[in-house]
Amino acid sequence: MRSFTQTSFLRSSAGALRFASAKKNPKILITGGLGQIGTDLSIILRKKYGAENVIVTDINKASDSVLQAGPFFHCNSLESGRLEQLVVDNNVDWILHLSAIMSVLGEKIPHQCMDLNIDGLRIALEVARKHNLRIFAPSTMAVFGADAGKVMTKDDTILNPTTIYGITKVLLEQLGAYYNRKWGVDFRSIRYPGIISAATLPGGGTTDYAVHMYHYALNNQTFNCPVHANEPLPMMYIDDAVNGTVKFLEADRSLLKRCTYNMAGFSFTPDELHKSIEKHTKLSMTYEEGTSVAQGIAHSWPDSMDDTNARNDWGWKPEFLLDDMTKVMFDEIPRCHPAVPKLQKK
Ligand SMILES: NC(=O)c1ccc[n+]([C@@H]2O[C@H](COP(=O)([O-])OP(=O)(O)OC[C@H]3O[C@@H](n4cnc5c(N)ncnc54)[C@H](O)[C@@H]3O)[C@@H](O)[C@H]2O)c1
Ligand SMILES: C[C@@H](O)[C@H](N)C(=O)O
């Protein structure tokens, strides 16, 4: 286990060196920690740093198993006083600010999306600035619009998203970089592709269809896909996402040449995922007619992303490809959700 022993310094815009942390293990607070990424990220962080050092917070109520796994506090990301109190009371070093409303849900409730994704971020950044914390807040491939370049979209390109979600995430990247330049805040962000995991159901995104396809296959139900059969999107299995995120969080700041990095796994279309699933079991599928909200969004996003900078600067390297992920998802979904039937082989 790698320990958090380095004494690191942050340079503010005024040139002063500020002491960041010299503790053995960082004390970490996660907002939106009951969501898809927080659920798996908190498990791996607790294994590395100790359960008591990872504080999960969310606006939702925690289940008994979450309460048994380690510290949990109710926290609405829009209540600045609450977040700051938790940071002070628990001597927090890093905030992982995960609470957000994603693409499809954002188009349904754009004002709530702006409130949470913009005001929640601003509050978290201010707490990080005031208390000299490292702050990680994820971005997404949704920052790209159709003019960003479809294939192997680079870190530095045109950012003209069409969704309110993407617009709030461009702001996140820019505001975080501003806090870093102006006040030396150790802001870090990753542009994730669609994340696929078994432990939770995804919440309101364009890429959710992929997780649902596995559940429908196991439940022997017909899936009506909102995204066209041949629409490719960048995706990543959760183990790669959380392992890469931890590597990025632990990277010495001097290695990072930017605040925000593309992080890519592999790309597939619904039809390719269908074929991967059908190597194991039957899945009956139909496709929504016309252009659904999810299809419109998917078509505006890249087909693939270039993550050369993440690979070169802090050693990012994914391990899972499509068929590896399919195999693991079929084991993991029934394990995490006992009500879902185990795989019925063809
Ligand atoms: N999952 C993906 O495919 C993906 C891809 C790219 C980027 N991201 C980003 O990663 C982060 C985490 O994503 P996720 O998939 O875990 O999201 P999620 O929707 O699964 O979870 C979000 C969590 O935030 C909580 N929440 C909602 N409103 C809140 C509030 N006011 N205060 C506190 N908590 C609140 C929800 O209860 C939920 O547990 C988000 O910033 C998202 O934009 C996710
Ligand atoms: C890509 C991502 O940010 C999210 N899964 C969405 O589809 O909205």
TrEMBL record:
GO terms for biological process: L-threonine catabolic process. It catalyses: L-threonine + NAD(+) = (2S)-2-amino-3-oxobutanoate + NADH + H(+). Pathway: Amino-acid degradation; L-threonine degradation via oxydo-reductase pathway; glycine from L-threonine: step 1/2. Its EC number is 1.1.1.103. GO terms for molecular function: L-threonine 3-dehydrogenase activity. Residues 28-263 form the NAD-dependent epimerase/dehydratase domain. Catalyzes the NAD(+)-dependent oxidation of L-threonine to 2-amino-3-ketobutyrate, mediating L-threonine catabolism. Belongs to the NAD(P)-dependent epimerase/dehydratase family. This is L-threonine 3-dehydrogenase, mitochondrial. It comes from Bodo saltans.
